[in-house]
Amino acid sequence: MRFTPLFLTVFFSAIVAQAEIRVVGSDLFGKDFTTALAAYSKRNDLDLKLKLEGSRTGLGELQAGRAELGLVVFSPGEKRPEAPFVILPVAYHTVVVVVPATLPLTQITFTQLNTIYGDDAQSGLKRWMDMGVTGEWAARNILPNIPGPGGGITYDLFRYTALKAPELKPTVGVQAGLAESLSRIRGEEGGMAILPVLPANQPRLKTLLVGRGSQDVAFGPTPENIHSGDYPIRLPVYVVFRKDDAKRLQTTLRYLLSEDAVALWENAQLVPLPIQARNQMIFDLEVL
Predict the structure, then answer these.
(1) Residues 129 and 21 in one domain
(2) Residue 181 and which of 15, 87, 173, 236 are 20 to 30 A apart at CA?
């Protein structure tokens, strides 16, 4: 029996489509992320095997040839895998500075955050008037809050990015997680909280623009500002794969960069790339 080239192309394409794709990487996404990605795999007849046990472990699996796709974060200064690996950002961990919406303040600097939160700084900012606030808020105390280390990456990302030293003042309220910190600043006394995101439908709260110093422009945590690096607190999540696997991974990569996956990233408290960047990356993947 002779097989036509078209038949062979379809046949081998079907084999590739059905082949197992082992996905490894960060353990910071949460159970809902894993469940949603597994459901996507099932809906699209993909055989994604998820093993999200940590970025270092995942990179080791990739480099040893025991995985095809990694979703990883790198520490500052960490050496990245070189060719034949391709490394592309797909989303960002970030933190936002949240205050009551009625507080007449729009922005804050790293220096001010360090004075409020950092244990190595003198307590020069105790009341909102010390930050130039006037009116009914002026005499109120600044009450700083943050979810603790059990609440995800927020605690460490903030301490090692915005502060001069990672130790917090004893006056900082450290809560178990996002919900507890939100509850604290929605109270009558208000306050300030460092959060991974500001959840939707929080009309009584707002995020502040953040700048590195008093002479720097402050930016809000929009996808565009985070992706460009203008918003100064971010930690990228990258997809890592071998260039030779690009065609095989095309469907999964396109999904992770698609509009359909925006909710996947947001539910994991990450910020997806802005749509223009995602579309450009999808185009670039086509020619790998």
Answers:
(1) no
(2) 236
How buried is 212 (Cβ within 10 angstroms: 0-12 exposed, 13-18 middle, 19+ buried)? Answer: middle
Q: C-alpha angle 240/244/245, rounded to 5°?
A: 60
Question: What CATH number did the domain enclosing 24 receive?
Answer: 3.40.190.10
Neighbours of 265 (CB within 10 A): 19
Task: Say how many domains are in the chain.
Answer: 2
Label residue 87 exposed, middle or buried (CB < 10 Å: 0-12, 13-18, 19+).
middle
The Cα 146–Cα 117 span in angstroms is 10
Whether residue 49 is found in the same domain as residue 129? no
Instruction: Give the Cα separation of 88 and 238 in Å (integer).
Output: 5
Same structural domain, 152 and 187? yes
Residue from 96, 76, 93, 95 nearest 28 by CA: 93
Model pTM?
0.90
Q: What is the pLDDT of residues 70-87, one digit of tens each?
A: 999 999 889 999 999 999
- Burial (Cβ within 10 Å: 0-12, 13-18, ≥19) of residue 173: middle
Residue written as tokens 């009116």? 135
CA 128/CA 97 separation, integer angstroms: 15
Residue 75 has φ and ψ, to the nearest 5°, of -70, 150
- Domain extent, residue 131, equals 96-228
Provide the β-strand partners of residue 196. Answer: none
Distance of alpha carbon 226 from the chain centroid: 10
pLDDT value of position 18: 52
